[in-house]
Predict the 3D structure of the following.
Amino acid sequence: MEKTMKNQAKEKVILVDENNRKIGEEEKIKAHKEGKLHRAFSIFVFNSKDELLLQKRAKAKYHSGGLWSNTCCSHPRPGESDYDAANRRLIEEMGFSCKLKRLFCFTYKTEFDNGLIEHEYDCVFIGKINESQKISPNPIEVKDYKWISMKELKKDIKENPGNYSYWLKVALKELQKHI
C-alpha cells in the first residue's frame, strides 16, 4: 500500500469551497491527509433490468480497499471537467464507456482507519448499458464486480454496512430521489 500512496501523491486534486468554486490544487494524498475539500465524482451504471453495477475495490487502494462501491469514482484532474474525468475513469477502471448524465452533487466528510480523510464535493453521474456489454475491470483498481438490484443492495447494506464504501451509502440515499 505504501507504493500505491506514493504514486497517488503525484496526482493533484482540485480544491474547492462549499459552493464548488476552485480555490487551488493539492497533491491527492496530502489533500486526503489534511481533509481538504476537493472535487470528486461517483458513477452509477445500470443495465436494462435496472440493476446497478457495483465494483469491489482492489485491496491495494489507498483507502476503502476490499469494499463494495458504486461502478466507479475518482477525482477530476486540474483543467479537466467532471464529465471528461468521469468518462476517462470509467474506461480506466471498468474497461467500458457509456453515455453519462450528471444528476446532482453533494458534500461529505469521513475519516478512515489509516488516517486519511475524505472531504469531497462529489458529483454523481448515471449511465446505462446492456448487460451483455463487455466489462474489463483493471485489476489494479477493481477486485470484482457484480450486478445487483437496488432492493437487494439496500437490504445488504442494512445487514452488512461494513462491506460497503462510505460514499456509496451516502450517495444512494440522494440517488433514490433522482431516479
Remarks:
- The helical segments are 2-10, 28-34, 82-94, 150-159, 166-178.
- The longest strand covers residues 100-111.
